[in-house]
From TrEMBL:
<dbReference type="GO" id="GO:0015562">
    <property type="term" value="F:efflux transmembrane transporter activity"/>
</dbReference>
<dbReference type="Pfam" id="PF25967">
    <property type="entry name" value="RND-MFP_C"/>
</dbReference>
<feature type="domain" description="Multidrug resistance protein MdtA-like C-terminal permuted SH3">
    <location>
        <begin position="277"/>
        <end position="333"/>
    </location>
</feature>
<keyword id="KW-0813">Transport</keyword>
<feature type="domain" description="CusB-like beta-barrel">
    <location>
        <begin position="199"/>
        <end position="271"/>
    </location>
</feature>
<dbReference type="GO" id="GO:1990281">
    <property type="term" value="C:efflux pump complex"/>
</dbReference>
<dbReference type="InterPro" id="IPR058627">
    <property type="entry name" value="MdtA-like_C"/>
</dbReference>
<dbReference type="Pfam" id="PF25917">
    <property type="entry name" value="BSH_RND"/>
</dbReference>
<protein>
    <submittedName>
        <fullName>RND transporter</fullName>
    </submittedName>
</protein>
<comment type="similarity">
    <text>Belongs to the membrane fusion protein (MFP) (TC 8.A.1) family.</text>
</comment>
<dbReference type="InterPro" id="IPR058792">
    <property type="entry name" value="Beta-barrel_RND_2"/>
</dbReference>
<dbReference type="InterPro" id="IPR058625">
    <property type="entry name" value="MdtA-like_BSH"/>
</dbReference>
<feature type="domain" description="Multidrug resistance protein MdtA-like barrel-sandwich hybrid">
    <location>
        <begin position="65"/>
        <end position="187"/>
    </location>
</feature>
<dbReference type="InterPro" id="IPR006143">
    <property type="entry name" value="RND_pump_MFP"/>
</dbReference>
<dbReference type="Pfam" id="PF25954">
    <property type="entry name" value="Beta-barrel_RND_2"/>
</dbReference>
Amino acid sequence: MSRALRAAQPLVLALLLGGCGEETPSPARAARPASQAHLVAALQVAPSAVPITHERPGSLRYRRLVRVFNQEEGRITALALYEGDRVERGQLLVALDDRLLEAEIAAAHATLEQAELDLKRLEDLRARRAVSESEVSLARTALRVARAELELLETRRSFTRIAAPFAGVITERLVEPGDFVSKNTQLLALADPDSLIAEVAASELLLPHLAVGDAASLRIDALGAQRFAARVLRIHPSLERRTRQGIVELALDPIPAGARAGQFVRARLESAPVARLLIPFNALRRDRQGEFVWLIDAHGRATRRAVRSGLQVEDRVEIRDGLAPGERVITRGFLGLRAGKAVDVVSD
């Protein structure tokens, strides 16, 4: 063995003995805490009285619209009005051929005159005791029947001339002069332009907070971006079963120029201030079990609570059931969150 090899043996032996000793723990491998608090953002809820503004779609319609039907059959002899024509109250709308009724009325007049003569003759005979009282009574009855028949025919003749029940505008013309129409056929439609209203559908949650006379505003798409003043005219008492919405009628004051029935409107309704529990919309969670929120309990741990939501106000939502004032609702930090997990609030 060479001198160099013999000199290196002690160094190699020392290295081998050092490798068999215990390993010194490094700072990087120091023991970590078994668990860490979950970082969340939270909000302490409190009731706040806020008026809620809702924009609801709807349409304009005539509140006063009459569909004109005929009560007598016959050929139309006069109809000079078209859609868009304005009429005055009492103006003639439609005339029907009344020649047959005129002939019947003439015959009824003759029958009435004969009945009057018969009664007078019998009354003279009764004064001479030539006829009985029962014969005179029958003549009186015949006279009343003749008068009633004449009145009936004259009433039917009046039905052949149909006049406007109010001042308005013709919206439909469904027949033409010369047409033969049977009874109860719609001939025209007449609307009152001053009765134009907006009709919108409102949620069952909003309706209890509206009242007749409340101020509102609306925008008519066909007339541009201008908003027009309105007020709540009527709230219908029943709801549509499928959507749970009710009808609200809005009166325009004044009715803007260019407004027409059937135009699309966007109505803005504002309810009276009511105390509500509102939370950020993203704090309301949903899954197969329904709506819920995450709360922080007295021990600083997350707990799940089922709730029932109500109206949405911009970026917040009303909690109608399941939440009490003063409780702290988690608004952010839901990833990995579970019931019973300790939480650390980073912002309130």
